[in-house]
Write a structure and sequence with these properties.
This is Two-component system, LuxR family, response regulator DctR. The structure is a single chain. The radius of gyration is 23 Å and the shape is elongated. It is an alpha/beta fold and about 200 residues long. The longest helix has about 30 residues. The protein has 2 domains: about 120 residues, Response regulator (Rossmann fold, 3-Layer(aba) Sandwich), CATH 3.40.50; about 60 residues, Winged helix-like DNA-binding domain superfamily/Winged helix DNA-binding domain (Arc Repressor Mutant, subunit A, Orthogonal Bundle), CATH 1.10.10. Helices cover about 55% and strands about 10% of the residues. Helix 6 packs across helix 8 and helix 7 crosses helix 8. Strands 2-1-3-4-5 form a 5-stranded parallel beta sheet, with helices on both faces.
Length: about 200
């Protein structure tokens, strides 16, 4: 995990951007600010941010449209929408689409920092799972169809002789497939293999 992962603030109100940037800096958070969604998206990389604050209504591209583009990436950090009173229904719609939360302006400093820090913690946990899944899927992609068959039988506790009978192959062949499967998955035992897939949230 990147310890310098930043909070991104996208709002056309310069005074609000400056105030939020100062607020987060007093809590030792790194911040990047953007006056519009277009400049933010041009500079955006999912790995750079642990929490995003998007204004619902901005000139040009609004926050909801920007959010839709963020979700096109394989990973999207938690998003908090900033909204005026009249835009609350739009913010509620964003929640249904997967946003973390929304705050109605004006909001308290403590409320904002508490929410952003919860999102940063959520991002760290979600990113660990995401990265574990990406790594596990890359390893699974190296397996041959036969090695996948053997892996599934290993995971349900079948012994080599039973696997040989199930697949109508020799025990020696099973042993070769088993060794190659564990090597490609970068584990030493069936228990480690099961734990790897479980932690990545992958059904074998």
């Amino acid at each position: 995990m990147n310890p310098e992962r930043r909070i991104g603030i996208v709002d056309d109100d310069e005074a609000l951007r400056d105030a939020l940037s100062w607020l987060f800096s007093t809590r030792n958070h790194q911040v990047s600010t953007f006056a519009d969604a277009e400049s933010f998206l041009a500079a955006y990389s999912p790995d750079d941010f642990g929490c995003l604050l998007l204004d619902v209504r901005m000139p040009g591209m609004g926050g909801l449209e920007a959010f839709s583009k963020l979700k096109e990436y394989a990973y999207c950090p938690p998003v908090i929408f900033l909204t005026g009173h009249g835009d609350v229904p739009m913010a509620v719609s964003a929640l249904k689409q997967g946003a973390a939360d929304f705050l109605e302006k004006p909001f308290s400093d403590n409320e904002m920092v508490d929410l952003a820090e919860r999102c940063l913690a959520q991002d760290a946990e979600r990113r660990r799972t995401f990265e574990a899944r990406e790594s596990a899927e890359a390893r699974l992609a190296q397996l041959t169809p036969r090695e996948r068959e053997v892996m599934k039988l290993i995971l349900v506790g079948r012994l080599n002789k039973q696997i040989a009978d199930d697949l109508s192959i020799s025990m020696k062949t099973v042993e070769v497939h088993r060794a190659r499967t564990l090597e490609k998955m970068q584990v030493k035992t069936a228990m480690e293999l099961a734990a790897l897939l479980r932690d990545a949230g992958i059904e074998p």
